[in-house]
Amino acid sequence: MSRHYIGWRKTRLSEPTGNCIEVGVAADGTVGIRDTKQHRQGPVLELTSAEWADLLNAVRTLPQNASSSTSL
Question: Which Pfam families match (predicted)?
Fold first, then answer.
């Protein structure tokens, strides 16, 4: 079953090249994450509110330059 997410938003620090994500929330508290380059047509990564909090905590505690030097 597909959830309906509302309040999609992206960071004000997103790159002008469009390399960013958007985050929305479903009625049950599930957090959806999507790639803005997919123009609302791509997949949505779904996280529980606890998983979202863990992700934010992990990103916020990265060493200052770690996020820009990490490649996937």
Answer: DUF397
Instruction: Give CA–CA dist 30/64, Å, rounded.
Output: 29
Q: What is the pLDDT of residues 24-52, one digit of tens each?
A: 999 999 999 998 888 888 899 999 999 99
CA-to-CA distance for 3 and 58, rounded, in angstroms? Answer: 26
Q: Please give the C-alpha separations between residue 9 and each of 20, 64, 65, 66, 67, in angstroms, as whole numbers.
A: 10, 24, 24, 24, 21
pTM of the complete model? 0.74
Q: Which amino acid is at 33?
A: I
Query: Considering only CA atoms, which of 55, 39, 58, 37 is closest in space to residue 47?
Result: 55
Structure-token pair, residue 23: 């985050």
Minimal CA–CA distance to 46: which of 34, 27, 32? 32
